[in-house]
Design goal:
five-stranded mixed sheet, two-stranded antiparallel sheet, elongated
């Protein structure tokens, strides 16, 4: 079984973990009845720790804005749905999960009953106003479930993408790979390398297919190698521009968005493999399926974490599904002779 975490974008992983920690910190803080300021103090600690792992300047700035906006969105979702006081909410989920014996522990707590949730955290609850188990079930189904489904769907987003579709994780992949490309080109030029060959990937995108496996110059020249391979300046392949609907322009050729290609010094007689369009399409479909399976695993992990101590049945079901889909991901990778990435399916 092949693992592929070596060289994985650890900056993207750090930001994904920060998002997961923020999700839980906001939930637990609101359920404990902490002030927004107290919750924000925890959020800022999480963000500071995550940013220690982020070395790309543009990504650090984007991540700071994105994670703060994500925390605010999560908190406001609780506030809009349930208000500042979480005691009725906690009483309802205690009843919904079958915990009807909410018992005071001290004389001071006779009005504020203490219920121990499965998270291991003690929460203050007040069962007043919850007349029956039926009421709890209706409240949970109509008020709680839709809100928690919305909380799971929320993700830290790229703050510079006005479409609202690009996630912070994707932004991290883009920034770090592009930064690595620039570093690599600079190192090759500094070493006096004139000609380079672009790597070949069977599962590359349509965008890169025509550029991979070719020879390029780093000094702006055009010509033919002694063994008969034509070359053009690298910029012919890289400086292809794409303008978004928001009016932002990016380079999006070889070594562009999320491009996994790399350059190597060209040597006379170097054998460069060729991948047919049919093979590329087949392998790219496998790559796309891997990413889809990773998203499914992360989704169920997120559902389980979001509902821990809230909906015990859903928490356990989501854990089971995450485990089943994780096995499916590993099996699919194995069956298709692909490395798999444990860190891509890790929630925290």
């Amino acid at each position: 079984m092949k693992l592929a975490d070596k060289g994985l974008n650890m900056q993207a992983l750090a930001l994904e973990e920060a998002q997961s920690k923020i999700r839980i910190a906001v939930r637990d803080g609101w359920m404990r009845g902490l002030s927004k300021a107290a919750i924000n103090e925890q959020i800022q600690r999480i963000i500071r720790e995550a940013l220690k792992e982020v070395t790309t300047p543009a990504l650090r700035d984007a991540a700071y804005r994105s994670l703060n906006a994500f925390a605010e969105r999560q908190y406001n979702t609780y506030l809009t749905a349930f208000g500042f006081d979480s005691r009725l909410f906690l009483a309802v989920i205690a009843l919904y999960n079958g915990n009807n014996s909410i018992r005071p522990r001290t004389a001071v707590e006779k009005e504020l009953h203490i219920g121990q949730q499965s998270t291991g955290v003690t929460y203050a609850t007040d069962a007043k106003g919850v007349p029956t188990q039926v009421y709890a079930e209706e409240y949970f189904t109509q008020r709680v479930k839709p809100v928690f489904e919305e909380l799971v769907r929320q993700k830290a987003l790229d703050p510079d993408d006005v479409s609202g579709r690009n996630t912070l994780r994707n932004r991290a992949e883009m920034e770090v790979r592009y930064d690595n490309h620039l570093t690599q080109i600079g190192q090759l030029r500094a070493a006096g390398v004139k000609l380079v060959a672009a790597s070949v990937h069977a599962d590359c995108s349509d965008r890169c297919y025509k550029w991979q496996g070719r020879v390029y110059s780093l000094d702006g020249t055009t010509g033919t190698t002694p063994d008969g391979k034509s070359y053009v300046p690298l910029e012919h392949a890289t400086d292809i521009y794409y303008t978004t609907k928001a009016g932002k322009t990016y380079k999006n050729g070889l070594l562009g968005f999320n491009c996994r290609h790399y350059l190597m010094p060209y040597k006379e007689g170097m054998i460069i493999p060729h991948v047919s369009r049919e093979e590329r399409k087949r392998e790219y479909t496998i790559n796309t399926k891997q990413r889809e399976l990773e998203r499914i695993v992360r989704y169920y992990e997120s559902v389980a974490a979001q509902n821990k101590g809230v909906d015990n049945e859903l928490n356990l079901r989501a854990k089971r599904l995450a485990k089943e889909w994780r096995r499916e991901y590993v099996k699919f990778s194995y069956d298709n002779d692909r490395a798999y990435y444990p860190s891509r399916i890790k929630f925290i």
